[in-house]
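Researcher: Hi, I'm a grad student and pretty new to this. My advisor asked me to get structures for two proteins we've been looking at. I'm not sure of the right format, so I'll just paste the first sequence and hope you can take it from there.
Model: That works fine. Here's the first sequence with its structure tokens right after it:
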Amino acid sequence: MEETFEDLVEKAKSEEKHKNYQQAIIDLEKARVFDENNKEVNLSLSRLYMIDGKPVQGLEIILHQEGYDKDPDYLLQLSNIYLTLQRFQEAENLLLQALDIHKTAPLYNNLAVVMMRLNKGEQAVMYLYESIQINDTNPNTYFNLATYYETKKDFTKSKQVLEKARTKCETAEIDDRLIRVLLRLQNYQEADRIAQEALHRFPDAVALLIARAHIFMQQGKYEEVLMWIKDCSTRQIVSTQMEQAFLDLKSEALLRLSRFDEALAVVQHILQNPKHNPLYHLKKANIHLFKREHRQAIQILTEFLKHSEYPPNLRQDAVVMLRDIEILNWQKLIEFLYMDPGLHNELIENPFQAIEKRGIILPINNIQRVVEDIRKQRGGYVTAQQGVS
């Protein structure tokens, strides 16, 4: 049976809902064969091309529509594409052109986003309030306004915006965002109250379940973190995001509780995932540092630095960690040199064995310099003694 225009449109909606974007694109392209001027199909197809990382194709669909420059919806979609392409000035011009035709909340909201990218913060805020005045139930507008204040480090103002948002639209995302801001303000009691209220309304909201674990963590309630994670694991929720977040929080809580072997086991489990974040190699090294297992930490960090494809900031962190390990071992060596006179002789006779026996790990060329200094000091002492006699 041949698919109709309506069948293809409905099929595309279903595919998009399940995040099968490429199949949804195929279905809409087929639908355009029936009606290439259908506005709903053209806008949806253009948007899906953007999601699929093909903004130029999305751009072409809109530009081929007759009278697109006089249609606010087409102009809005064009501005989204230019925003994705970081062509901010063109996006601004299109949105202003659309607002001349028809003033809508989404147009003002998107114009505000463009203004932020152009570092025109005051204008952005003005447009966001214009958007709220037309439609005060769009959470995205409040998010953008809160984001602006957060970039200015004005978390109190961001809190006020999100509190107003909660009275206008009930979403777990707004509750989660407000909790994060309250944590920045170190208002843990209020954050936990909001979290519990929100979880009563949205019991399976992954972001809120993770947020409550963060509340316990930031208060230093590490046992409560572990208990909360255990409680959440009994719920019938399948979420890669929650699993990854809880593994990270669990390893950190165990480390803070000095349960090093358990923390190491959690990090090792994370590293078994082929798509793991390289950061966890540094976390593993850090746990070994807490256990005073410097040799294992050095091995991990040295191996880490062989991977030139790892992010530069993480590679720099690895270098700093190696430097800190060396400083700690120098301090340890100095303490032994003061407290253990026998070490002087052992360093001259067998520097490797001398430092190994005391758990000191330092580059051998540096140890040789210490040995030479000891020899010089002893030589000077002998010469002085001969001069006195």
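Researcher: Oh nice, that was easy. Here's the second one.
Model: And its structure:
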Amino acid sequence: MTNKRRYYDFFEDEKKYPDAVVYVVVSQRGVGKTYGFLRGAMERGKKCIYMKRTIDDVNTVCMGDELADINPYKPINRDYGCNVTPVKLRKGLGYFKDIQGEQETLVAYLAALNALKTIRGVDFSDADYCCLDEFCPTIGDNNVKRKAGASEGDQLLDCYMTFERDRTDRGLPPIKLVLFSNSDNVISPIAETLELVDIISNLAASGQAYYYDPDRLIMVHLITDKEYPVTEAQRHGIYATMKNTDWARKAFGGAFVNNDFSLIDKKTINHSTCIMSCTYKDKTIYVYENMDNSRLYFTHIPHQTRLVYNFNKESDRIRYMRYDNILIRNAIMNNQAVFETYSMYDLFLNFVKKFAL
């Protein structure tokens, strides 16, 4: 049986932005991101590295059998008469092969993001793409730590460098990194490492679908329900049960209902005094207090101030937490703070958790 449904086609995005090296695609559930990518790569004869976040995820992919096939190629096998099956090599590492009679063909590699020790030393350099499925953990995933420093983002980039090896030295194009996620949360370790949080937030706020940075060679596609509206068949299922709920807006509309954007806005600094500056990574945030209503505004607009923090230094993080963290959090809780970007809001709201203080 052939599936007539329209699925997201990653390779159309690649055609639009052929020079990109990193492709980030975020959407509501059910648009077929993984299906479209794996099918398209097979049709084009392109090898890929299909990544899951954890070793347990890889084990799950490989544990099926003929009666309970749970590998991501199952719908492709159904629709196109393929026979792609997973093979586990060792902890967190495997591959997919297509079996046609006595002939077996390598289709894709399979690797876990947190299996870097296993992956090191393995040559994946014949792959053209690396696809990480569900790069944003779902709410409540206890395996994810928000602590600044080593994170899934660093693991991903370390894995990528292992995959890349000497491709560019041999005159080959770099492996293209493809990241898929549902719209569960704009905040995730990988989004923070790649500095995607504000890009995705701004797309969601503006209603735009695409962002491309020619200097960073990164494309972000925020798929909306306008591109992939709810089908008539879907309207008779769980959609009808959950219509007009936050879950439905997330699952079918791609809304980031788990994020609070109510304090995100751009303001002027008229009638305001700069009371503090806080540097984190390579950016400095300036905190202004409005003289009329005492409301705080967090922005990148620079100004001299006596109170200076550098959150890249542990001593300054501790000093801030001891003297000013409660003041800022109270302002947030009482709606007396406005932030220019969502990443600023998250930094100050979750300061203690982020730096494990």
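Researcher: Is there anything I should tell my advisor about the second?
Model: You could mention this: The first strand starts at residue 22 and ends at 27.
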